[in-house]
Amino acid sequence: MNNTDLIFIGIKGSVIALSRDTGEQVWVAPLKGSDFVNVVLRDGVIVATCYGEVFCLDPITGQRRWHNPLKGYGTGLATIASETDSGGASTLALAEKRRRDQEAAASAAAAAASS
Fold this sequence. Notes:
This protein is α+β, with helices and mostly antiparallel strands. The chain has one helix at residues 88-113; strands at residues 6-11, 14-19, 25-30, 37-42, 45-50, 53-57, 64-68.
């Protein structure tokens, strides 16, 4: 099996590899928490961000090659740039941030109204 046989999904703090042919789960790599996961496959590795941290995974096994907690930068959304990125991953991350900001504003407004 090689990485072209797989589709990589970032969801709830994990990266999941699915068989491109069957859709069956091949492996799962829990990262951190249950937050939004940004995933990029580039130059034979998976780079994923979650909960303000960066992870590098082997695309065939899901094994962690390295992890950087990005100490001092908080736990917000982190985007990944690459030479071949057409902006899709960044667009998704920005849409998720906008959704979270709107959800937080709605919660604050509801809390203020009930006070």
